Amino acid sequence: MIKLELDLIENLPVPIKRHLIEQKIREVLATHAQFLTEVTLELVIVDDREMQILNHQHRGIQAPTDVLSLPMAMDVERGTVVPNHTQAPLCLGTILISLETVRRQATRFGQKLEELFLELVEHGVRHLVGHDHDDEGRWR
Predict the structure, then answer these.
(1) What pTM was estimated for this model as a whole?
(2) Is 112 helix (H, G, I), strand (E, B) or coil?
(3) What is the domain-level CATH number for residue 76?
């Protein structure tokens, strides 16, 4: 089992129980268990204003987004996680989620807020471990 240290920074109150967030993170990390044994990551809940600033800084897009991942342990050229067995735990990076955007999307798509939030946690973790997706949203 992967040892997980989650730093949950709630700039806005999170409507999801922490253990469900950790469970979703572990599900994604389990596919990388061959070298991920002890990891830390940060999950920051922000509003649209803060997300717009961060999205502009990191992606050059002047608009808020639902989720933004900032990997720390990536080989950017290869698009893969860099396993570093000499340093434990491996710090994967930061996931930022705009709660305002998630609420709007849940209403627009007729989805439960908790379900969409956990989907975005999964989305963020997948980026932290090196996955990417095409313009159609298909993971690779």
Answers:
(1) 0.85
(2) coil
(3) 3.40.390.30
